[in-house]
Design a protein that fits this description.
The protein contains 2 helices and 2 strands. It is α+β, with helices and mostly antiparallel strands and 65 residues long. A two-stranded parallel ribbon has the order 1-2. Helix 2 (47-58) links the parallel strand 1 and strand 2 (61-64). The longest helix is centred in the C-terminal third of the chain and has 12 residues, at 47-58.
Amino acid sequence: MRTYVPIRVHSPYSISEGAIHLRDLAAFAARHAIPAVAVADTDTLAGAYSIRDARLAKGVQPIHA
């Protein structure tokens, strides 16, 4: 069985590129048994800490890309 892991997600920290809030992304991943998600925000690392905290609370592994 294959496991899906999105590796190019943009959060609202990527101005005009991201559409999903990080807490919602973590909840979505946990609900759909997605084990990890990579946030690839453009020109910023601002979302790195908040996504780490949100994902770990939901049991989803953060990948910083």
